[in-house]
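Class, carefully examine what follows:
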Amino acid sequence: MKILILSEAFPPETKSASTIFFELAESLVKVGNDVSVITRVPRYNVADGTELDKVPAFEEMSGVNVYRYQTPPLARDIPLVRGLEHFIIALVFFFAGLKLGDFDVILVYSPPLPLGITGFFLGKVKGCPVVVNIQDLYPQTVIDLGLLKNPALIKISKMIEQFIYKNSNAVTVHSEGNHQYVLSQGSAKENTYIVHNWVDTDLIRPAQKENPFSIQYGLKDKFVVSFAGVMGFAQGLNVVIEAAEILKDKKEIVFVLVGDGVKRPEIVEQARQLGLANVLFVKTVPRSDYPQILHASDVCLVTLSKSLVTPVVPGKLLSIMAAGRPVITSLPLEGDTPKIVQGSGCGISVPPEDPAALAEAVLKLYNNKELAENMGENGRKAAEELFSRTACVSRYGQIFSELITK
């Protein structure tokens, strides 16, 4: 099969979106497919020291043809401008796709939501089916977060969302909660599939705490509570700083926050104003070094704002489980993530934006190393059984083949 993937994020960006779709593309090539990716020139969420001016406009990565296109540098911390950027990306990707040859199937990563429109029209031009993978439920996510308030813009966004669900040849989602949502918004049941996000359980495995990362930052004798990932509007990371303040007298406990995003300056300043010596900020690390952060940790955090009531399963949860580390989630308890945590016994779920509950959960694992170890082992077992890369990626191959046959 000749497959075209449209994804805003791709390596050398390090966030979960780029990792998931790189691994998907790489795996599809390994089983004999011809895969091309259209993405943008990276500017955000790249490892410290990455020379962005040397990232090529075209390269072959693990057999995948990667085409990168420049988009205007806009102020991403302004929600309305960020929305405008999404439409610009969709337009740039459409004309980029026209330059390439024919394909058997097009796969779109959403968000940004307008990429679904790009996929639809490219599919019409090239006469091939289009699959849209819905990772975050836009526009509902930004409505929940209070970032989209204008009634007219909400109506237009909802119309785009429903158009994509109704006119894509297939829609894939990563959890049951997301499945129910897209069905409620007009996606046809026979064209909507649950394909779990995956984790490379060969790449990320349990390992010793002492490694170059823990040595570099003096963490090997500390009880490390880590967060690694995008620091954006949805993550609600202020609760981590507030929990760190509660535990500031516990000298052995240190909170390590790794990554970048529009909210990073705010939480850095929050920690500075509180004079917290138990919080360490580290810039984004290369993808290859990410497992070291997990291994250096005694417990890992997954946080989301309490406003984000749409069901979400952050990709970092699966990586934490694969690394054999216990997890503490601080997010809405009605979603899919707490169900995974409870069902696998891999950690503790606390209400979102509740620093006292988060601090209590950290203390519970700090004081009971055996419990923490058992939770880590449970997580690894569940990652191997439920979220393996091989099983999840092969499902995409099946969906593509069925669509092409039809």
